[in-house]
UniProtKB/TrEMBL annotation:
Biological process annotations from GO: lignin catabolic process
E.C. designation(s): 1.10.3.2
Compartments, as annotated in UniProt: Secreted, Extracellular space, Apoplast
Cofactor comment text: Binds 4 Cu cations per monomer.
Reactions that this protein is recorded to catalyse: 4 hydroquinone + O2 = 4 benzosemiquinone + 2 H2O
Function: Lignin degradation and detoxification of lignin-derived products.
One GO CC term on file: apoplast
Protein name according to UniProt: Laccase
Annotated gene: LOC105123189
Keyword annotations: Apoplast, Copper, Glycoprotein, Lignin degradation, Metal-binding, Oxidoreductase, Repeat, Secreted
Domain Plastocyanin-like positions: 41-154, 167-316, 425-558
Cofactors, names only: Cu cation
Organism lineage: Eukaryota, Viridiplantae, Streptophyta, Embryophyta, Tracheophyta
Length: 576
């Protein structure tokens, strides 16, 4: 009898446990939402710097719509191309697990959406939270086609820092007083560097220091004592930037949708493609304070030396009664445009909040030289050879200048088994070893143009050392890897020394990022596990450099079974 009662109790307990697990499972997924949006890419008159341009926008907005979701949510975004250019959209920093079809880079994972046509991007946020962004990934359309993508924690999950009173996306951009596509077209023709921008912007507005702009300067009201979260995004096309807020300290709590150990600074350096979340407490005398951004220029090259501003405005700030308007805001102290020490001081302060998982046994040890180059011309006096000394600008990784395919996208060609679109012989090291940051022989300045991929087995543990070169000029190249985030384990100036430099690697609490630059004339090392099958672009996020060929792609092979394999392409995937 006791045995029978015990059996009944066991069955009842197991039944209760099963029901509890089922309801917990359902409750977990009931929290997740599917967000449906329509993004209409279209031209709209936009006035900046006293002139109106027919600007490519999304839904008539510049910048474009902000997407706010939670970890675990899915997005279904129908992109309708009503513009006159081919276009694709990229969801920068989203891992897109097993789903390269939603990643978006033109001719890499999809053919472009042609004018008058549409494509629906479908993807799910999986174990990511923080600040990311979306942008066009076709030529220079992202100059104006971009917006914030904010991922909140799952319901019931708090931030790992004090809850801010409010959250403000800060999108830093660049503005040309002409059609950016025409700027690119001219540079493509002449082989020279493209014209620099005419202004920087904060949330689409240049600010007080530019002509015809003061009335539209963005203002952010704040109450005394409040703590706010600034989600800073560098959406500029070609320029790294210093950013600060007058008289206010910034506490960095996340970069590239990865939390960091909080640290306080008066200025951040942020490269195109990167995001930085900072807490700001309104603890100053009530008044008006400029937030401002200007160039960090690590190269010996022309740049836009202007400053964009917005205003942090205390709600209790006194007005100038005599003039009937508020007093001039206080201006922040930003580093000089060439202050590499300040840039390095900021990036070296980034750490993960605690110990993180970093690959220790490396399967693929890659050494990538990144930098510019020059293509020699048969006729140096040609109007198509207006680069230095009658050449055309180029850029490369390991002396291979990346060429986008024309007949098909890389991913579609791979999935369909179409030959002749790419090869998989990208070199793991430079073809010639040289003094990368010294006086480089002119015989090494001309790269080879090709569409080469590097093949990785699923689950491979990968280390890449990005080595800047002094060819043409040293420069901090922000390298972005699609489909992945990675641990930034070390960096330094000069040539990387494989015998001594690894001893200084941080394998305990390195920051995780999706975009990172080497110090100018230096190197940076990253590690990741190749756990996402598909073809994934790696490129410099200075778009002029990508256009010159500073990119390559990884082909990550399928693993075992459905959960380690690329999912089938959607039926509406555009064709070339």
């Amino acid at each position: 009898m006791e045995t029978r009662n015990l059996t009944v109790k066991q069955v009842s307990y197991r039944l209760f446990l099963s029901i509890f697990v089922i309801f917990s499972f359902q409750a977990h997924f009931s929290e997740a939402e599917t967000h449906y949006r329509e993004f209409v890419i279209q031209a709209k008159p936009v006035k900046r710097l006293c002139r109106t341009h027919n600007t490519i926008t999304v839904n008539g907005l510049f910048p474009g719509p902000t997407l706010e979701v939670r970890d675990g949510d899915s997005l279904v975004i129908k992109a309708v191309n009503n513009a006159r250019y081919n276009v694709t959209l990229h969801w920068h920093g989203i891992r897109q697990l097993r789903n390269p079809w939603a990643d978006g880079p033109d001719r890499i994972t999809q053919c472009p959406i042609q004018p008058g046509r549409s494509y629906t991007y479908r993807f799910t946020i999986e174990n990511q939270e923080g600040t990311l962004w979306w942008h066009a990934h076709s030529k220079w359309l992202r100059a104006t086609v971009y917006g914030a993508l904010i991922i909140h924690p799952k319901l019931g999950s708090p931030y790992p820092f004090p809850m801010p009173r409010t959250e403000i996306p800060i999108l830093l951009g660049e503005w040309w007083d002409r059609n950016p596509m025409d700027v690119l077209r001219l540079a493509d023709f002449t082989g020279a560097a493209p014209n620099i921008s005419d202004a920087y912007t904060i949330n689409g507005q240049p600010g007080d220091l530019y002509r015809c702009s003061k009335q539209e300067t963005v203002r952010f009201p704040v109450g005394s004592g409040e703590t706010i979260l600034l989600r800073v995004i560098n959406a500029a096309l070609n320029q790294e930037l210093f950013f600060g807020v007058a008289n206010h300290k910034l506490t960095v709590v996340a970069v590239d949708a990865a939390y960091t150990k909080p640290f306080t600074t008066s200025v951040i350096m942020i490269s195109p493609g990167q995001t930085t979340d900072v807490l700001l407490t309104a603890d100053q005398t009530p008044g008006q304070y400029y937030m401002a951004a200007h160039a960090y220029n690590s190269a010996n090259a022309p740049f836009d030396n202007t400053t964009t501003t917005a205003i942090l405005e205390y709600k209790t700030a006194p007005c100038n009664a005599k003039k009937g308007k508020q007093s001039t805001p206080i201006f922040p102290r930003l580093p000089g445009f060439n202050d590499t020490n300040s840039a390095i001081a900021f990036t070296s302060g980034l750490r993960s909040p605690s110990k993180v998982k970093v690959p220790l046994q490396i399967d693929e040890n890659l050494f990538f030289t990144v930098g510019l180059g020059l293509i020699n011309c048969p006729n140096p006096n040609s109007p198509r050879c207006q680069g230095p000394n009658g050449t055309r600008f180029a850029a490369s990784i390991n002396n291979v200048s990346f060429v986008l395919p024309k007949r098909n996208s890389l991913m579609q060609a791979y999935y369909q088994g179409q030959p002749g679109i790419f090869t998989t012989d990208f070199p793991p090291v430079p073809p010639v070893k040289f003094d990368y940051t010294g006086n480089v022989s002119r015989g090494l300045w001309q790269p080879v143009k090709a569409t080469k991929l590097y093949k990785l087995k699923f689950g491979a543990k990968v280390q890449i050392v990005f080595q800047d070169t002094s060819i043409v000029t040293v420069e901090d190249h922000p390298m972005h890897l699609h489909g992945y985030h990675f641990a930034v384990i070390g960096s330094g100036f000069g040539n990387f020394n494989p015998q001594t430099d690894p001893a200084r690697f941080n394998l305990i609490d390195p920051p995780y990022r999706n975009t990172i630059g080497a110090p100018p004339g230096g190197w940076v090392a990253i590690r990741f596990e190749a756990d996402n099958p598909g073809i994934w672009l790696l490129h410099c996020h200075l778009d002029s450099h990508l256009n010159w060929g500073l990119g390559m792609a990884f082909l990550v092979e399928n693993g075992v079974g459905k959960l380690q394999s690329v999912q089938p392409p959607p039926l509406d995937l555009p064709r070339c």
